[in-house]
Amino acid sequence: MDLKQVRETAREKMKGYCRVCPVCDGRACAGSVPGIGGTGTGSAFNANLEALAKVKLNLRTIHQAKEPDLSLTLFGEELATPILAAPITGASINMGGALTEREMVDALLQGALAAGSLGMTGDTGVPSMYDDGLAGIKAVNGKGIPFIKPRSQEEIKKRIDKAEAAGALAVGVDVDGAGLITMALNGQPVGPKSVENIKELVSYTKLPFIVKGIMTVDEAKLMAEAGVAAIVVSNHGGRVLDHTLGAADVLPEIADAVKGKVTILADGGVRSGVDVLKLLALGADAVLVGRPLIIGAFGGGSEGVKLTIETYTKQLLQAMILTGTEKVTQVSRDILVC
Ligand SMILES: Cc1cc2nc3c(=O)[nH]c(=O)nc-3n(C[C@H](O)[C@H](O)[C@H](O)COP(=O)(O)O)c2cc1C
Predict the structure, then answer these.
(1) For residue 151, what is the domain's CATH number?
(2) Pairing mode, if any, of strands 119-121 and 144-148?
(3) Has residue 227 been placed in a domain?
(4) What is the pTM of this model?
(5) Structural domain range at position 184
(6) How far from 109 is each of 94, 171, 215, 302, 310, CA to CA, in Å?
(7) Whose CA is nearest to atom 4 of ligand 1?
(8) 331 belongs to a structural domain
(9) Phi, psi dihedral angles at 70 (to 5 degrees)
(10) With contact defined as beta carbons under 8 Å apart, do 89 and 104 qualify?
(11) Is 236 a catalytic residue?
(12) Whose Cα sits closest to atom 6 in ligand 1?
């Protein structure tokens, strides 16, 4: 199996939902939510790619970084690569249903693990999909991280209990899902959270607690003060609010404010190992990938996901050699052209 075959199969299996474009930038699928695109004009999806494309690297080869170290520890797990599978839900709603929810989740979690990484799962207006994610996490001995929509505190706590029972490594809330009308239409109301709400959840769970969907310095600082273990700098792949900045636009200031106080994850528009290195240099501790791994899952199951993460990891290794970067845990901003 190679990535070309994976992409061809995925194009067939997601017909009418994802065109598997040469560059996955949200233009062809603009407005496809539900679907695989970005909301509205698709501008926020595209902004993620544009923000990364603006970042340029300094090519350096007179140095000692011959065998870069790509390993890191995250939520107590030793990982071979900083490239994780982002939470994805809605195999039937968003991708056409060629895979069941459970099959998609299994492909993402198992493929990520096989590549020496980790996967995450999500939550939607169809409550059984959160449970499918947890079943997948249980099947890999808890080596996964579920994300819960910003439901009422009581509903979140019920789902945290289930995550703990499944043995998950950590648990999170994608707070940027606060405006999702689809959730309300399904009788599953969501809404914004207060700092007190987040503090309550942090102390409620014994697991590391993650807040996904932070795009401003003020909220990153508030989350650090609230005691979260990690934030995900993310605009939800451009799926929640049109015309936001890209994650790579806001990441440097956020890292300046909270690096070392909380673990910083980032996602949005990562389409190569070079993009991964850019986000690490801008301040991320690890990076999540969404749509390319959906394509991996539909095009080749767990093998397709593994192959995609391994391909990006090889590209990252090469880019580290060519920028003089010895460790993924210490990526200098000096590798970037300012
Ligand atoms: C079809 C689809 C479903 C998603 N479902 C969820 C979800 O349930 N929970 C969540 O936190 N993020 C969800 N996301 C957002 C991803 O976790 C991630 O933030 C985003 O896809 C990253 O951008 P990229 O796809 O450009 O890599 C979803 C994204 C897509 C495309």
Answers:
(1) 3.20.20.70
(2) parallel
(3) yes
(4) 0.98
(5) 3-19+79-326
(6) 18, 15, 26, 8, 14
(7) 88
(8) no
(9) -100, 5
(10) no
(11) yes
(12) 88
Given 212, 236, 278, 291, which residue is catalytic? 236
How many domains does the chain fold into? 1
Give the separation between CA 8 and CA 160, rounded to whole angstroms: 38
At 141-197, the pLDDT tens digits run 999 999 999 999 999 999 999 999 999 999 999 999 999 877 888 889 999 999 999
CB 188 within 8 A of CB 179: no
From the number of C-beta atoms within 10 Å of its C-beta (0-12, 13-18, 19+), residue 76 rates as: exposed
Q: What is the pLDDT of residues 79-106, one digit of tens each?
A: 999 999 999 999 999 999 999 999 999 9
- Please give all residues whose beta carbon lies within 6 A of any atom in ligand 1, as ranges: 36, 48, 86-90, 94, 122-124, 147, 174, 212, 234, 236-237, 239, 267-270, 289-291
In a domain, 105, yes or no: yes
Nearest residue (by CA) to ligand 1, atom 5, is: 88
Q: Which residue has the tokens 């996904």?
A: 212
Residue 58 alpha carbon to ligand 1 centre in Å: 31
332 lies in some domain: no
Atom number of ligand 1 nearest to Cα 48: 26
Mutate to test the pocket of ligand 1, among 239, 244, 275 (most ligand atoms within 8 A of CB): 239
